[in-house]
């Protein structure tokens, strides 16, 4: 110990992102600075949960130590101290946890804070916990913070200290018991947080649901008062839980700070016994599309915390759900490895997933406007289930919503089928990046009053590869050549006079000779009414957007040549068809053929393979117009 006492404090610089964050905290003028207490209590509660979990396999780590959080006010010293009996931190833990933000959301957090500037005063501080940086909120009320911690299983304690201005120190310290003590040296303008009544109100408002006693003492008082209910919220009768209680628990358990859109709280009894308290967020979490696709539902066994990322409780396509599942039929000492392929968890997962989808179905039926907002936030993720989960595919198809060429807002597949024209045998769709209704492929369908679903999400290209029909109606891409047979869907009205069939055939022959392998084929089109040309995929070829997307991500070496369709009723095509039989017109038709193909590629969102050539052709056309 003498050697430790001789060790001088080591100084460290904060990670760049932390330095910027601390500057925001130190100079904050937010009106709701009380959130610092919520964040520190939440961290302390998590530390207690983790100590209890590790003690399942190492009982000596807990012993007879009560898990609690003690908050002490010292008005004379102007300090506020929070002590917990949680897992504690080692020297390296202090440096890593309090000197860096070791998560991918750092840049997004700073951007979110920037975007929140100038908005409601609560906007930016509410982002603090969402991005896992809640500890630093202490610097909104303190001009110096000292942390003394002793890791469970170790005899050594270490102190971390900083004024939040760019650096921190770490040195040996003394702490009799395992856990962490945070001492805040309060700013002059933060005196309100040294008032017992004020702190009690904050604790009851934000942290009453925490199942670990939060005790508060002032000055030399011999006893501390327990402020919170200290009972796991999910174990209480639903009749005793208000919306505010649910909302605060949601924020605590999820790290999100919006209002939950839906709350699903039930107790399963019978072959399996467990309590489920799940929340559907009101807004998409910032890490919704993290490649790891981890679950954020916490698993408890008999009210003992086990893990906060149990992938066996919900499928990855429900990873936006937040909450807890408390199981009665699992061993308390179950390890993460034992969770995998566990038959009890597998049965629970099936039942819980069914409950969640049932809740979504009720929302869709009874609150369609709310469901539309939900779908805008989470529809892309639910569609992953269409691709991955054969068992739930029919349920998910009924829940799916799409944009349409025929109406504003979103439509279900069942609604689409109910509006299908007489003689229509397929559900027609167009995969498009922006959902625009100006695509040339739509023209023939619009002219005949045939509705087309506009699929704007990249995942659509993948699930449509494995889902072939709904309600007995096959899905049919309108960018496939086979969709050009529109005669069965009725007349399109007066579209103007078409060029003579012989002239069109001759024009096509000339264009094929000009364009060569740049196109797979050239055909007269039934789908076009206003545009002169469009590109389509041949029957059996990959859909247009999917091939572009795979090529962009190096998953496809080359894109198959497209079929170029020309509109024999368009005035430009009519004139070219007439000239195709005249002498001296080859150069004009060749120039027009290349430009029409370029136009079709641009309209389809495909890159032009020869930009200099395109520029030369455009200059040639402009020169001819100027003569």
Description:
With 627 residues, the chain is an alpha+beta fold. The protein has four domains: 225 residues, 2-Layer Sandwich (Heat Shock Protein 90), CATH 3.30.565.10; 138 residues, Ribosomal Protein S5, domain 2, CATH 3.30.230; 101 residues, Rossmann fold (3-Layer(aba) Sandwich); 126 residues, Up-down Bundle (Four Helix Bundle (Hemerythrin (Met), subunit A)), CATH 1.20.120.790. 36% of the residues lie in helices and 19% in strands. The strands form four sheets. Strands 1-6-5-4-7-3-2-8-9 form a nine-stranded mixed β-sheet, covered by helices on one side. The longest helix is centred in the middle third of the chain and has 24 residues. The radius of gyration is 32 Å and the shape is elongated.
Rg over C-alpha atoms, rounded to the nearest angstrom: 32 Å
Number of structurally distinct domains: 4
Name the shape in a single word.
elongated
Low-confidence stretches: 102-106, 118-132
Top CATH class of the largest domain: Alpha Beta
Structural class of the secondary structure composition? Answer: alpha+beta
Mean pLDDT: 86
